[in-house]
Amino acid sequence: MERTYIMIKPDGVQRGLTGEIIKRFEQKGYKLVAMKLTKPSKEHMEKHYADLANKKFFPGLIEYMTSGPVCAMVWEGKNAVLEGRKMLGATMPSDSAMGTIRGDFCIEVGRNICHGSDAVESANHEIGMWFPEGVCEWTRCDEKSLYE
Length: 148
Ligand code: GTP
Ligand code: MG
Hints:
There is one protein chain. This protein is α+β, with helices and mostly antiparallel strands. It contains 8 helices and 4 strands, in the order E-H-H-E-H-H-E-H-H-E-H-H. The protein has helices at 10-14, 18-28, 42-48, 58-65, 80-88, 101-105, 120-130, 143-146; strands spanning 3-8, 31-38, 70-76, 114-116. Strands 2-3-1-4 form a 4-stranded antiparallel β-sheet. Residues 52, 57, 60-61, 91, 109-110, 112, 115-116, 118 line the site of guanosine-5'-triphosphate. The site of guanosine-5'-triphosphate has 11 residues, from helix 4 and strand 4. It catalyses: a 2'-deoxyribonucleoside 5'-diphosphate + ATP = a 2'-deoxyribonucleoside 5'-triphosphate + ADP.
């Protein structure tokens, strides 16, 4: 089954939104297979956002992302990558639909509270980076009701 890397950014953790975001993924039907609260190093964060290294906002992004703990998670389920991105909403909160996490809970792109992998390939790369120890395999007792 597909897995995606979802991260609650330092502003999301500081604003007490961790439970709300976890709740949405749990209630959708996705399965939490890894989770930890960690304060990422500058090097780790630069590696995570390496594709944005030449952007003007990159130094600010790294400073923001290393300012406090993040909640790193892996969620598993059918189409978890694409559906996870839909649940987070558009990158720019001004474009995020109401009902999405960003649409409901934030205002500025530089403080958009959550991250989600943008493709299966990047999800696998990010999961390996954040959880080199691997994930926890288990069966949700409602899987027979979630999938036909
Ligand atoms: P992530 O899930 O965090 O990877 O966001 P994304 O995939 O929706 O967007 P992208 O990977 O292009 O950008 C990564 C992060 O950089 C965004 O979530 C924002 O936090 C930040 N970012 C992107 N564009 C801007 C910008 O124009 N200004 C600022 N200040 N931050 C930006
Ligand atoms: Mg991205």
